[in-house]
Design brief:
The protein is mainly alpha-helical and about 550 residues long. Helices cover about 75% and strands about 0% of the residues. One of its GO terms (molecular function) is sequence-specific DNA binding.
């Protein structure tokens, strides 16, 4: 290594660390260069980053000396892309300070957009959205088409993150046509984003087409930076197409490249879908290490996305089956933290993007078509009125049903001494047989045998010491119900009495209540509860609790 190269390295390292506090002295070889020279010689290529950092520092020193705020802002932007990530936000703020002194809307907007890109890369989505929205305010006042579409792309990314995929697709399509002629890398990025969005709305064929287009266009444009991302996208897409082995193969292939670039977002996504693919193949032990990577990313950098949340549910389910209470509790606690982050993040982002971005675009359109929006507003008001009326009706209906349920006494079935003569004559069964079956039926109810799981007509018939035909006839005539409803109603009535009289059951989950009453699944229990009472178990318990504290 020559003395000249050593000097350049030393200067860059020194001034990168102290650029904010000391005056940089431009080397003699660069002292006579103009702004155009610095701008054209910074190519943002990693192999020349040290050299380019020296150019950027010299550019900044020249702009400071000449008090040229426009060039000062541009030189800070160059420093952002030639410096360590820890300094990027500092330089972005310095860029904005300089840009604001120029009163150039395009430059100020560019500063906010640059800051938003950095924040998005740091997973600071709320801050990134704020920067995008401010950038949009400034850039919308200019005729700078590149910046207009760059902001539009940033907003589309936030919409994708929020799950507004159709809206994101519309914006990405607008960007695609512009970037195709203007910016190779932005064009490839947009193809990639479109593919991801198509995947999210279930258009897997279109997603594959976008990925194939991206791979071929990258080769055609001699830009292979995005190749691994298109393979990554197709790997995820293959998971949704149930080609699990292919998904694992593609995602595993790109992991080294993602690790090398420290792309936590796509690396974590790859782990998630590799894990889910193994899970779908019934290879849970192989899936576990990959699913746990989601929690590692969250614990280290608080990175999480709504779709990645499922990893926690799978891990909780697995450790429940293994009866590993310690790990089950760990992932339950972690999931609670994840939900808090997602709720906070999404509530803020969703509100912001609709209030400050979508509303703005809505008003612009409204100026061109007042009559159309009047109809829209009236329609919305009408729909809201109907919704409010439905909710009010449901509220009063639920309140009435709750009061009726609280006043309802447990059903008492007719005793053997009741007037059953007319019924006996209808059944064409020996009266003595009927009497024996009814005694066994009362015993069945008294001993709560109906709480056993998977209680079927065959099991009941055995307990009643008869055959299934006689058992179903007796239940239909003497309990006025079909066998399924008869058992289901007994189970639900049992749970209702427990909830009414014992506070501890009000803390049970629907799953636990379903198990307590012998239902095969949570869904079957909640459906049976609703069919029997007209209410959901959650609503019934919440009303019981409110009465308890009132």
């Amino acid at each position: 290594m020559t003395k000249k190269h050593l000097l350049i390295i030393w200067l860059c390292l020194y001034y990168n660390a102290y650029a904010q506090r000391t005056n940089f002295v431009i080397p003699d070889s660069l002292s006579t260069k103009d702004y155009e020279y610095f701008s054209s010689n910074i190519l943002y290529e990693e192999k020349d980053s040290i050299k380019e950092m020296l150019y950027a520092q010299s550019w900044l020193a020249k702009a400071k000396r000449e008090k040229n705020y426009g060039q000062k802002a541009q030189s800070y932007k160059a420093l952002i892309y030639t410096s360590d990530k820890k300094l990027q936000l500092i330089y972005a703020d310095s860029m904005l300070i300089a840009a604001k002194k120029t009163a150039d809307f395009a430059l100020i907007g560019s500063g906010y957009m640059t800051k938003g890109v950095i924040q998005y890369d740091r997973k600071e989505h709320m801050k990134a959205l704020d920067s995008y929205l401010i950038a949009d305010e400034y850039i919308s006042k200019t005729h700078n088409q590149y910046q207009i579409y760059k902001v539009k792309y940033g907003i589309a990314q936030i919409k994708y993150y929020l799950g507004f995929y159709d809206e994101a697709i519309a914006l990405f399509k607008e960007c695609l046509g512009y970037f195709k002629e203007d910016n190779k890398r932005a064009y490839l990025n947009t193809i990639h984003s479109l593919g991801l969005s198509y995947n999210r709305i279930g258009k897997y064929k279109l997603c594959s087409q976008m990925n194939q287009l991206g791979l071929s266009q990258g080769k055609h444009l001699k830009n292979l930076e995005m190749q691994s991302y298109f393979i990554h996208s197709e790997g995820v897409n293959q998971y949704f197409k149930h080609n699990y082995s292919d998904a694992i193969k593609k995602l595993t292939k790109v992991l080294p490249a993602l690790k090398e670039t420290k792309d936590l977002t796509n690396e974590t996504t790859a782990y998630f879908y590799i894990g889910k693919s193994y899970w779908a193949l019934k290879l849970q032990e192989k899936a576990l290490p990959y699913l746990k990577k989601i929690d590692e990313a969250f614990q280290k950098q608080k990175y999480i996305r709504p779709d990645l949340r499922e990893a926690y549910e799978l891990l909780i389910h697995y450790y429940q089956e293994q009866n590993d209470k310690e790990l089950e509790l760990y992932y339950v606690t972690a999931l609670s933290e994840v939900d808090q982050v997602l709720i906070k993040d999404f509530k803020y982002l969703s509100g912001k993007i609709h209030k400050e971005y979508d509303t703005k675009k809505l008003l612009q359109t409204q100026r061109n078509n007042e009559q159309y929006w009047t109809i829209v507003v009236c329609t919305i008001i009408s729909i809201m009125t109907v919704i409010i009326a439905v909710l009010a009706h449901r509220h009063y209906k639920n309140k009435r049903l709750f009061e009726e349920l609280m006043n309802r006494k447990p059903e008492t079935n007719q005793s053997l001494a009741s007037n059953n003569t007319s019924k006996e004559t209808e059944l064409d069964i020996n009266p003595e047989v009927i009497t024996a079956i009814l005694r066994n039926l009362e015993k069945f109810e008294r001993n709560k045998k109906y709480l056993e799981k998977d209680m079927t007509l065959a099991k009941m018939a055995a307990l009643l010491n008869t055959n299934m035909k006689y058992a179903s006839k007796i239940i239909a005539r003497y309990r006025n119900k079909g066998t399924v409803d008869y058992i289901s109603h007994l189970k639900i009535d049992h749970i209702i009495e427990l909830l009414k009289n014992e506070n501890k059951y009000r803390n049970y989950t629907n799953k636990a209540l379903g198990e307590e009453s012998g239902f095969g699944s949570t869904q079957i229990f909640t459906r049976a509860f609703n069919n029997r009472t007209g209410l959901s178990p959650t609503y019934f318990i919440s009303k019981l609790r409110s009465q308890q504290h009132s």
